[in-house]
Specification:
Distance between the termini: 60 Å
Structural class: alpha/beta
Number of strands: 8
Order of helices and strands: HHHEEHEHHEHHHEHEHEHEHH
Largest sheet: 6 strands, parallel
């Protein structure tokens, strides 16, 4: 068998959604994007100005994807991805890359970041809405290049919902637009699984931002959040159960030019709403918070409520590395954050991730890092530290005399379990009091 044939045969083993989790193992995975090499960023700008043709740009993208997959594998990551090297941004890929064809235009401000810069929302000039490109295209291009399971990030229906005004576009009503958005997002996820993705994350950075009232971003406001959550649940409801179990939802305060857009919004307002989403798992930024342990406390409270109400609870991957900060986390620091988080989130429901995608937008100067190429080096180093630190935390949990205390009453499958016999009757109230400390 040829080497390439061997890779393809091995890859075929990983095309099914990873709806289950390996017992007694802390999962770890990236969110999605990685910094693009400076050469790729230049090539994109040169292609837009006609200095190079589309074939030369494609060759540059191919080189970046191959390098990303190879270096991802070197980190020891159990799941890899292409780092969105072919995308202009997480928010625009379904609409293609051009805003000058009459159907798509630059719309209102999406977010104003802490450093003062802003990003806009791509908007439809006329209906109907349709996906022009699919996340599955990236999966299909990456699948033959690695034998490892692939992770793919997809756009949220809530982000797409901002691309048409509340009154619709003439005869193209808002209601019809949202129907088209939901069906398109469902198809995007289904195609990605069919192309070989094992897990998929819905980017939901607009969730935290929705809780800020900002006149510069007219769409934002707490009333928007409920509609966003409803749209995501409509997408999830149309997926097969084994697919829905392998779909995560990611929340963070944004990351662009090493700056956030909503870090000042209190997580206490978002997290109870976030857990109204019927996702298979969640990825929640925490490392760059002033008090990462408070995030774990807030999450643990929601997991207990989910357990008591429905009997099942999702997995939660906590952010343990900060993509905006070039300072490297050590494996020991990652381990320690996970061990602390396990006081509030049972280890059998815990995992790790990065706080955010490292570069959600293609053109990103990464000013705190100095250059995009150095930011790329830092990103892979942070991923390697996350992977090793997660292994260390797993060893610590496994080496304990007894399993980490699931004091909230969770079983290993995520189904509510009876309280262990060795625990006193007043143990749970004591934990509740500890959780309330600040």
């Amino acid at each position: 068998m040829s080497a390439s044939g061997g890779i393809e045969a091995e890859a075929a083993r990983h095309v099914a959604p990873a709806s289950g989790w390996i017992a007694d193992e802390l999962p770890t995975e990236a969110v999605g994007s990685l910094p693009r090499p400076a050469s790729l960023q230049r090539a994109v700008l040169d292609a837009e100005t006609g200095l190079i043709d589309s074939e030369e740009l494609l060759r540059e993208q191919d080189r970046a994807v191959r390098d990303t997959l190879d270096r991802f594998a070197e980190t020891g990551s159990p799941l890899v991805g292409d780092g969105e090297q072919r995308r202009q941004s997480f928010a625009s890929y379904p609409l293609g890359t051009s805003f000058d064809d009459g159907d798509v235009r630059a719309g209102p401000v999406f977010a104003v970041f802490a450093d003062g810069h802003h990003r806009v929302i791509p908007s439809l000039a006329r209906g109907p809405f349709r996906f022009r490109s699919w996340a599955a295209d990236d999966v299909a291009a990456a699948r033959p290049l690695t034998h490892l399971p692939l992770k793919q990030a997809v756009i949220s229906p809530s982000m797409l919902s901002l691309m048409v005004p509340p009154d619709g576009l003439g005869e193209y009503s808002r209601e019809q637009f949202l129907e088209d958005v939901v069906s398109g997002c469902v198809e995007d996820i289904r195609r990605s699984f069919a192309a070989g993705a094992s897990r998929i994350t819905i980017d939901f950075t607009e969730g935290r931002l929705a809780l800020r009232r900002d006149l510069r971003a007219p769409w934002a406001g707490p009333e928007a959040l409920g509609g966003f959550i409803d749209l995501i649940n409509r997408v999830l409801a149309d997926l097969a159960p084994e697919q829905r179990g392998a779909v995560g939802v990611h929340t963070c305060p944004g990351n662009d030019h090493d700056s956030a857009h909503s870090a000042d919004v209190d997580y206490a307002a978002l997290i109870p709403e976030l857990f109204q989403i019927e996702a298979g798992y969640f990825l929640i930024q925490a490392a760059s918070e002033k008090d990462p342990d408070r995030v774990a406390r807030l999450v643990g409270r929601q997991l207990r409520q989910r357990s008591r109400a429905a009997g099942t609870v999702p997995r939660v991957l906590i952010g343990v590395t900060d993509p905006m900060n070039p300072k490297l986390e050590t494996a020991a620091e990652v381990r320690d954050q996970l061990v602390r988080a396990s006081r509030f989130i049972p280890a059998e429901l815990l995992g790790s991730t990065d706080d955010c995608g490292f570069s959600p937008y293609l053109i990103d100067e990464k000013p705190k890092h100095g250059t995009p190429d150095f930011a790329r080096e830092v990103a892979f180093a942070k991923i390697a530290a996350r992977v090793r630190g997660t292994e260390l935390a797993q060893q610590e949990f496994s080496g304990a005399e007894s399993a980490p205390a699931s004091y909230a009453g969770f079983g290993r499958t995520g189904v509510a379990a009876a309280r262990p016999a060795h625990r006193s009757a007043d143990a749970a109230p004591g934990v509740e009091r500890q959780e309330g400390r600040r």
